[in-house]
Amino acid sequence: MHYVMRSTHGSLDMANDVLLNVENLTVRFGESVVVNGVSFAVNAGEKFAIVGESGSGKSITALSILRLVDAAKTTGAIEFLGEDLCLRTEDDMQRIRGGKIGMIFQEPMTALNPLYKVGHQISEVLMLHESLDKKAARARAIELLNRTGIPSPEERVDFYPHQLSGGQRQRAMIAMALACRPKLLICDEPTTALDVTVQAQILALLEELQREIGMALIFITHDLNLVRRFTDRVAVMERGNLVEIGTTQDVFSNPQHPYTKRLLATRPQRVVQSIASDAEVLVEARDARVSFAIPTGWFSSKPFHAVKQANLALRRGETLGIVGESGSGKTTLGMALLALQSLSAGEVLLEGKRIDNAERTALRAMRKRMQVVLQDPFASLSPRMTVGQIVGEGLALHQPDLSRAAHEEKVQAILNEVGLSEKNGIYGVLQRYPHEFSGGQRQRIAIARAVVLEPEILVLDEPTSALDASVQQQVLALLADLQQRRGLSFIFISHDLAVIRAMAHRVMVMKNGDVVEEGETLALFDAPQQPYTRELIAAAHLV
């Protein structure tokens, strides 16, 4: 193995106390080695990043530090504050987890308990590790939600996870991890579901806490822009091996390993094809509004206006990007366009025919023409179904006359198209279950499930949020190719403005349920008219 070790002096001289030392960590699942002899150290107060493609072993490495990898054989040493965690009892680890070492998981919907309010889950950590009473723990939970950027924390402390947007759930997860001011915080894709402005708030918060308590951070991420701006040192992993490590500045300015060079060279490239001036309008929203009743007591509630008024028209072959902060209403609007969310007022039309109030039979026919790729692939894929069953389920429903051979051929073809097949080195993919894949691979399964029906319109809700840079580029290229060959139309919902600039013909900017600005993509990015749009673009470091 070609391994590159860089100098780690310079910016880290002030933090010369080793907090965590990992020596020759190897993790095996049966005969498969997923982490191969990895060694690194993290100093007190340091921001240390581990980067690599999906399946590189970076998340398994992080989970192994807290001994959270089940059914695996782990060897090596993991020393924290001078003690080997591999030798500690499970009771000892229970006290360390959440207390001395916190962790922010990649998928908040599965990390948060759906049966308990978010405030209860944060309070539970404080009562367990800091012995706070219920009232004090609740007050601290509200403070943490506020510091992590959740609006109206006094209300949302009593929300269940499903009542929060994807980004808000991630912020609640971050609040829980920070509750006890741990000495080490492991962040597994901590800003995946966050828009750029809230990402900046979270990073500023983490830096503030570092200064207060000397907390060290391990960032597991595919966001290379974040790594470049935020971390002190970076380790690069490829297929379970650590191939390069050094200061962030050195690695980014002068990468030595071929894999590191490929990783840093991968960025979203604009792949938009022009569309005909007379292209027909497929989907329209006219004065669309969506409101929810929020309980304020046993017998009382108040309205929450998620989408206040939206008008849009999507033409054949066109991509409309919808951007905005978490909770801005962009996902709610996308679900309303699919008739998966009821309107409070207005209407949605598909080729001139209303679908927001259509009967069940008409909706079923429409479903084949309009498909969706959801933000959280782990929550949207059934854990009890194999990949073959998941991808083929829509075919069985909408094309029941297909022979078994034709059915399997279509499933295999689309999995190959999204990079999930034996020719891509993924063996037995049809018989495997979602939990056996990385986050990025699960998102590709979700994309395959939608595209296999050959729809005319795709609503893409953060389709690349779980993907590393190189796989993201592959998926964007795939979507662009599908659009060109099949005349597909996309509603592309994302907080990643670089992706929107690469993919969208037009952009709609939303804030607090309102459409604040819209226009042709490059014109809007070059000369945004509204202060909020300028703030978003500046936070994304696109100017």
Q: Summary?
A:
The protein has 543 residues and is of the alpha/beta class. The protein has a 7-stranded mixed β-sheet, with helices on both faces.
What does this entry look like structurally?
With 543 residues, the chain is an alpha/beta fold. Helices cover 37% and strands 26% of the residues. The strands form 4 sheets. Strands 1-11-10-4-9-8-7 form a 7-stranded mixed β-sheet, sandwiched between helices. It has a 6-stranded mixed β-sheet with strand order 17-18-19-14-20-21, with helices on both faces. A 4-stranded antiparallel β-sheet has the order 3-2-5-6, with helices on one face. It is globular and about 70 Å long. The model is unreliable at 7-15 (pLDDT under 50). Helix 4 packs across helix 5 (134-147), helix 5 crosses helix 7 and helix 15 (387-398) packs across helix 16. It has 3 domains: 4-100 and 182-265, P-loop containing nucleotide triphosphate hydrolases (Rossmann fold), CATH 3.40.50; 109-181, no CATH class; 317-327 and 359-539, Rossmann fold (3-Layer(aba) Sandwich). The chain contains 21 helices and 21 strands.
